[in-house]
Structure formats: C-alpha cells, structure tokens
Amino acid sequence: MVRKTGTLLPALLIIIHTCTGANSLAEQHNPDMARAHWIWTSPSPTAIGEWECYTRKTFDLTGKVTSAVVLITADFQWPAGVVFVGDYVPLVEPANFTVSVLGSRAYFEHDAACPPALGRRLYKLVPAKPDGELTLLHDAGTGLVAAPCVSWDGSTVYFSMVKAADKFFHVYAIGADGSDLIQLTHGPYHDYEPAQLPDGRIIFCSTRLGSRDEYHGNFASAIFAMNDDGSNITPLTYHIVADHEPKVTAHGGIAFVRCDNFFERAKVETRIHHIRPDGTGGMAVLGPDRSAIGFDRTFAAERNSAWLRQNGFGSVAPLADGRIAAICQNGLVASGLFDSGTSRFEKAPVGFVPFDVSPLPDGRVFCTGPGRSWIGLIDWKTGKTAKILSLDKIHSAVFLGSQPRPPVLASQLPAGAQNRRPQTGLLLCQSVFDTKQTNADLSSIKAVRIVQGKPFTLRSAMHRFDHIGVEGIELGTVPLAPDGSFYVEVPADTALSIQAIDAEGRSVINETTWIYVRPGEHVSCIGCHNRRASAPRSSTMPMAARFAPVKLLGRGTPHRFRANNGGNGCALNLQYDRFREAAAITLFPVTAKSDGSLNRSADIVQLSEQLQSADVLERTSAAQTLALLRDRSSIPTLAKALEDASPQVRASAALALSACGNRSAVRPLLETLDDRNVFAAQAANIALENMTAHSVGFNPFMGRSNAGKWQEYLARNDWEAIESRLIRMLSSRDAVVQLSCARALGHVGSEDAKAALREFLAQNPNASLRVMMAAIRSLGHLRDAQAIPMLTTIFRNNMTKDPGKAPDLHELGWLQRPVYLTATAAEALGRIGSGDAVQPLIESAPDLLDFWKYTFWCGDHSWLMGCQSSPIHYRILEAIDRSQPGNIDPIVPSILKSIPIDTDRALLHETDSYENLVARVLARSSLYRQVIETCLAVLGDTDAEPAGNLEEAVTASAPAISVGPHDPQSRAAQIISIVCLDRTYARRLWDIFNRYRAMGPSRPRSWVCFYTARLLGRLSDDESIDSLVAALRDDAKEASFGYEDPPNVFVYKALTPFYRAAAAGALGRINSPRAIGTLMEALTDYDNAVSVRNAAANALLNLSEHVDADRLDAIAQTYPEVSTRRTLLQIRQRATLSKASPSP
Length: 1144
Known about the structure:
Elements: E1 2-4, E2 14-18, H1 25-29, H2 31-34, E3 37-41, E4 51-53, E5 58-59, E6 65-66, E7 70-72, E8 82-86, E9 98-100, E10 107-110, E11 121-126, E12 133-139, E13 144-150, E14 156-162, E15 170-175, E16 182-183, E17 191-196, E18 202-206, E19 222-226, E20 234-235, E21 242-248, E22 254-259, E23 270-275, E24 283-286, E25 295-296, E26 301-302, E27 313-318, E28 324-328, E29 331-334, E30 346-347, E31 356-359, E32 365-368, E33 374-378, E34 385-390, E35 395-399, E36 424-429, E37 447-454, E38 470-479, E39 486-491, E40 496-501, E41 507-510, E42 522-525, E43 550-551, E44 560-563, H3 575-582, H4 600-610, H5 616-629, H6 635-641, H7 647-660, H8 666-672, H9 678-692, H10 708-716, H11 719-730, H12 735-748, H13 751-763, H14 769-781, H15 788-798, H16 817-832, H17 835-844, H18 851-857, H19 871-882, H20 892-897, H21 913-922, H22 928-938, H23 951-955, H24 968-979, H25 986-997, H26 1003-1019, H27 1025-1034, H28 1059-1070, H29 1076-1084, H30 1090-1102, H31 1109-1118, H32 1122-1139
Helix pairs in contact: 4-5, 5-7, 6-7, 7-9, 8-9, 11-12, 11-13, 12-14, 13-14, 14-16, 15-16, 15-17, 16-19, 19-21, 22-24, 24-26, 25-26, 26-28, 27-28, 28-30, 29-30, 30-32, 31-32
C-alpha cells in the first residue's frame, strides 16, 4: 500500500490536554506534570512552505499556559525516511502485566517476554515529512509486529513478529522496499527486539536462557547475538530477570533496559544498562541513584526508599554524540557523555512525555506523541517538536536511511570456543567503606560474602504472579583488608551479589543489584553503594590487590537457601539473615548417621569429619557451614583446622571461630596471626577482635611486625580484666559499642558476664533490636541456666504481642521486633538445651499464632505470608532438634500446620531446611507413623490406618491470596513428602503416584504427582524407577497440551507444577544407570517443557560416572538453552575433575 500523507492531516487542530485523577500514575510520580495544562497545535498547511510545530510550553501550578509558534522554513531538513508500526495492540491483563511510566512505552515492570509496544502492520514514510510517501511494508494480519530497526546501509529492516496462529515471537528481516521477508530465528522461544551491530551481527532479546525470572516466575530474557543469517546464536548477557530493547550506541556499545529486581521483590525497578558487544564492561547508565537509606535501630527496619515500582525506564535512544536518551518518571532524559565520569542526566526541554523515542544520525530524535496518534521530530537543544504524521495507533518510529556505522569494538574475551573459555572472572573493590549507606554500622564490617543467584526453571502456579525468587548459593567469604578492599575470583556469566558482613557472618550492608563478570574479565569498583559520580582515590594500590585473588567459586557443598524476600528492601534490615537461615536448603540433612542419630549433635560430628576429609573443597565447605551453625562444640575441630594445608580452609576455620569461638580458641588464633597466608592471618585477627571487642591495629597486608601486639595486649589484660572492661562498655549509649560488647561477652564471658547481660536486658527493654538479640544470644551461648526464667518471659510476652500500626511500610520490617525477640529467646533457650529451657517452648507452641501472622510482621506481603517459614517456629524446632525434650506429641498438629505451602514460591526437587527440621523432630514423636498413615488415607490408600485427630492437621493449608491455598489432597501429599523418611512406604507411594497419573489433568493431580515423585527420589527406592520412567516416557508431554497465544506471560497450557520434572529429578537422586536411556530421551525431546529437560540434565549430572560424557558434551555444544547447556558442560567438567587428585 502506498499513499500520500498530506490528506491525512487536519488543517488545524487545537488539543487541550489535562492530566487529572488524584491516583493517576502521572500525579503519583510527577505531581507538577499531573497539574499542568498543555496546548498542542498540529501542522497547518495554510502557510505555504511553512509548518507550525510543537514547542515547549511553560506553565505554572495554577494552570496558566503560555505557548509559542515556531515556523519551519522550506529548507528544514526532514529525515530521509522513517519506519514505524501501525495498528497498536495493547498489552492487557491477565495475560500480561506491565506497569507503564506516565503512559509511555517505558515501564517499572514488564512481565511478558515481548516488546512493550505491539501492532499489526509495518510501514515506511519516505521522506519522513508530512507529504512523504506512506508504504505498507508488511501486514501481519491477526499476528503481531514490533520493534523495527534498520541496517546501517538502510537496505534492510529487522523486526519482531509472531505470525497469525504462531505461538512465539521471532526475528525477521525484510528489504526496505518490502521484498524478501526472511525469518531469522526459530524454535519454542520468544526472540524479539533486534538491532544490528557494527560488525553486521544481529543482537536481540530471547528467552533462550531457559530459566525463570525471580519475581513472577516468567521466562527470563537476555541479550543474544547471531550472524545476519540467523546462525551462531550466542548469549551476551545472562541476567536472571530480563534485559530488553538493546540498541547500539555511537561508540559501538550496547545500551538496553535491565529489569533490576533483586531477591524476588526486595526491589522491582528498571534502569538503562550498557555493555560492550562481547558482554563485558557492564554498567548502569541511567537509573536511581539513591542516597543513604534510612534505618531505625530500635526496629532494625529500613525507611521506604522507593524499592517497588518507583523507578522505571524504557525506549532506549542512543544519541549521535554518545549520550543515551530514554523515558523515565522524570520524562525524556539523557545520560551525561558516556565517558564524562558524571552521573548527572539532562532532561529534554519538551513539555510533554512522548510514548517512545528513537535517535536520528543528526542528533535529533523521532518521537511518538502521547496517545500514539502522531509521530514527529524533537530537537534536543531547543525542545522544538515538528510533527511528521498524524495517524491513529502508530508508534516505534525509527530512522530509515544510511547512517554512520559505529566502530567495531574488539572482543575482550579470551580467545577460543565459547564453551572452552575460562569460566571465571575477577572482582576488585577498592573499599567497601566508600559507601552512601552511612546509617549502617560500618565499623562492624569485617568480611565480604559473595552469593550467587541461581534461577529456577520450575513454575509452581498457573498464575501471572508466581513469586519464586532464586536459589542463593554462598560462593565463599573473604576477610577484608584493613583499607576495606577485597579481590576475588568468581564464576563468570553468573548473577552475583556482594554482602558486607560482620565478624559473626551476619549482614551489615547487602548489595541489591545482581552483578556479572564475563570469562576472563576484570571488574573493579570504588565501593559498595558508593556515589556514582565519585572518582577512584588517587592513593596506592588497594591492599587486597597486592596478593592473588581469593577463589570464591562455591565448589564443594556450599550453603544454599531460598533467596525469596516476600517484603521490600533488605539492604540494611534483617530479611537477608532471616532467609539465609530460616529459609535454608542445605542445613539439617535427613539421612540418619550410622548410629541412627538425626539431630544437631550428629550434624556437628558429620561436619567435623568432613573438615578432616581428603577433599579440600569439602573441608572448606564444612568450615563455612560450621560458621553458620555457630555451635561451641565445633571449636576443637575448627582449631585443628587452623593447621590445614589449604590456606582457604585455614581462613574459613578462623572466620568460623570468630562466630563460635570461646577462650579456648584464642591460643590457636594467636598462632595463626603468623600464618604465611595474609587472609588466614587477617581472619584470625577478626576473630580475636570479635571475642574481645578490641583492636590492636594488626595488618598482615603490610607486614607482620605488629603481630606481637595481640600477645602484649593479652599479657597485660587477663580474662577477668577483659570481661570487666566489656561489662563497663555494655552500658555505653552507643548502640555499636553495645552490640560488640554483648557479642564478645557471649564468647569469653563468665558468671559476671551472664549477670551483666541479664541486667542489661532487664534495664534496657527498648534497646536497639540487634543489640537485644545479641545479648539474648550470648546468654544462650554461655548456657546461663539462671537466664531461663527471663528468656521464657521474653518469649511469652512477645509471642502473641500485636506490634500495632507500622510507622512506615510494614514490608521493610517495622512490625518485626516482637517476632525476633520471641525467636531469639527460643534460640537461646535451645542453646542452653536443658529440659527446663526447652520445655517452656514445647508448652507454649500450641498457643502461638498462625505462622503467617509472624511472617507478615517480618515484612512479607499479605499474598506471600503463607509461603515462607516463621522465625519463631524455626527456632523452636531447632531447639527441640538440639536437645532431648520430653513428650512432643501434643505439638505435632501445630508443627504440621507451621509448614509453608509451595503454591507461591519456588519449587525444589528437594526439601528445604525448615521442612527437614520438621521431619527430624516428628521422627522422635510416637505419632510419626500415624501422620504418614493419615496422609496416605487422604490420598486414597485403602490400606491406610489414619488417626482421625490428625486429618485436619495434615490437610490444613496456609493462605495464598493470589494463587490459592492447597486442596486437602495436595497438602497431604506435601506433608508426607516432608515427614516420610522410611523406605518401606515406597510401594504404597508409587501406587498413589500411578493412580493420580492415570487421572485427567487437574491441579490436585499435578501437585500430588509432583510431591510423591519427589519423595520417591528422596527414599531412593529402586522399585520406584519403573513408575518414574513411565511418567517420563508415556505421560503426555507438556507441549502436547498446546502453547498460549502471545503476548502472554505463560508459554505452556499444561497445568503446573510439571510433575514429570520431579520424576526426572527423582531418577537422578535414585542414581541408577537403568534410567539413563529415558533421561537422554527426555533431554533431547523439545516437546518436553524446559523444566523437564533441565531436570533430566541434572539427573544425568548425578549419574555422571555412568554416562557417556563425550556424547553429552557434543549435545551441549548446540543445545539451545543456556541453563541446560551449562548443566551438560558440568558433566564433562566433573569427569575431568574426577581424574585429578585433589590438591590443597
């Protein structure tokens, strides 16, 4: 279709636009704009050779408007051409969820894997002027087109399209004359938003990562590159949420929108990010630059720092001068010059917010007007806006014509095939103390922990909001150098979080942005949460950089947990520590020791044995786990580990002693000050400082001449003198001093310390929450029997205490104080461990509130409060597990009801630590088998012998407001999958599994099959293999139910959870070679859901000693999904490592 556009324009149009509505997004995010009145005028053909165009309007808050007329002369430079999208198709719920910024194409949140602006037709206008020639390039009919871009020579238009009746967006190319439509990408993935690199390759967004984003469980999108014929598709970014709208900058880099979520919903916002074409050099170009976060010590709660849908960007437009423009809540803005070193941005001098923008080679900007009824030109310098075309439902205008090709930037990656490159990079921080977070206790920061965010592939709920988070994996901890620097080697292409921690391993400041390094890349920063505009200090080399980087690679058996914050924030508050412990995955195993023991004492014995194993990685992991458990009984083994041949083991053992040591640990720590490894020596120094609340200025990074100062200090001050000093300092008004002294007394105190701590708690009921918790814990560590009445009172007075109305947003921790006082009192009573200490907890348990009341008070959103464990219940179970209590039968129902449900959180192929604690505690009860039999009865086992008084307990579900609670059968299946540790039930369980498999699709069927398959895997019963194999081989594959129509947050129509993924995972845990053939078939059949194929790959990883590693390696080289490909490559890596003997 070709038509002249002059007839489309009205002679004169006066539009008066008023932003109204007290709750409108515009008023919420820009009150000045919301109260403004603008007058817009359209081009008028009455002036021959002249056009009246938009210009910036001035206004005051009373609504008075002034306007100006700008005349465009006949020699005005109209662009050579423009390509745009017509017949706008809105993104609507429930299939999509997008929170727009001021009605533009920018967004705070965009859930669907597709461009944020869609249409049906692709047009060009040549020249790009009101009387240019309008041509229809492509009509998608009932399909969708979006996100056009033009090749550098102007001959080809690349765009996103899903054809009518197709189910996935793909990248297409078409000649600028409308000829030669070519589909470049294929497969069951959404590929969209293409752009051409200077070297001719095409970059685009894609769901080929094969993992789900941490917020709503939708498929994550990253940036990929391919040849211009669609071959050689490789990832450039590995972001675990979403990267959108990649555009090439004038310098040859790539700017794009990054969805910058963290720990599920701790933070939900977008920013403009920049990378080199090889993915290196990642940095934020435009985004929120928060000042110091407010923090209240009494509540240990953050002030509201606009974490949730308050900062949004979109419509990336790299300008010709190197700046990057975009739309945000401040309107149309641009970054400072790319290499100027400034974080300031410039607001465009226009009096309206465009729907979208794109750059022209001459520095001007194409825009779509509000309402998507016209496209025009913006002169950035003057703010003058010239309208080009008026037509309803148009958007996404881009320049059509030849333009200067940016320079081709050489790759910074090591040479070689992508899958054979080094899989690590380096992180150097100049000083964590260079930070804006001055409300944190900076003097308490002693080390840095690096946490990996590993995305999930399973989706639990068939609901557009499925809050799954990520799996947090602790890669390791490094002591800080005295100048605050650290230098570490970390996994490449992996989401990483930096956590500044105290000497006991608890968080002080948490970095709330995922960072990445590419293979072989060296990434450096000035500080944590530092001022963006600050320049590196012109001082000497950071102390840590004087030595080889410490390897923090998460090998061995690292600590894992549910990184799934149901609230907001977590930069400074207690949420991070809560999920690290109460939502752990790897603590408290449920495999009994050789003597049948299954409790805390057995855990310490097992970890102590692991600390003496031949595998250096396992020794390191054991020390790090003991640091988390903080159990005094591990001191002798940890002290011995200070002599280990591995410096990383020695450093980890010293840090563990910092968390759990007492006076007996001091002598071996003093000897470690002379360790030849500076990090081990510094870790020992940290431990000594923590146990004495004193510093001697020890600095092994600059020589060890001051190592003797510790011996001198301890020679001058015996333990009585040290304790007396700590007791005096406990009365300080400084909360930081109080905290350090309360902790130190718990390490080295005697009877005097116990009395002082009891008095402090009695006299200071309103002290800082962290100080109160430290003092309570110290009484537990000191096993103060005289403190039992006080601790019991604290527990009972707070366990049902209503915290009242939150002074600020409750999701930031403002209601948590009574919950943490109760939980910490339970922890202390458990550490005392006597019958007198633990019995009050057992007696009080039936009187506790529903567990989700406590999670809500801890900050969890009301939708999510039933899906995470309560700190109070966690500490009670831990206390019972640690001790030898009496009859616990009366509290069995309340224990069962305290188990969170899985419908709105991540699904695991294993049980988590809270669930394992439940199983371990219930195994001691005489009701253990009755609980299992009751669950079996609910699931239809006619041979079951249920206990009628337990049926309500095994079927009662916690609330899940958005996705719904569990039905009775699903809940009973969940309970039995947690508590059953007896393999003799396997036959009855796979009978249930097969019976439910034979039913028609339903939500209960999916959940029951998922839980029973998972349990069969844990029981490792060989007779279950046939049923699990049959589920993979014979049951309907997920794709057979069909795919959803895009745009959509869902891909598969099949009901979740996908139980066949659990069957694959179970086969891996049973670890029988009989399953290899079926798993290989599942891996390579793309009608299986991504999660099923990923589970099959992980099962094969468990079976790596039995599989053909070369064959799997060959499959990995061309496997389309990154998450599964990485697992397959691990098999080769594991095979290689197994041939090499471990070295220290």
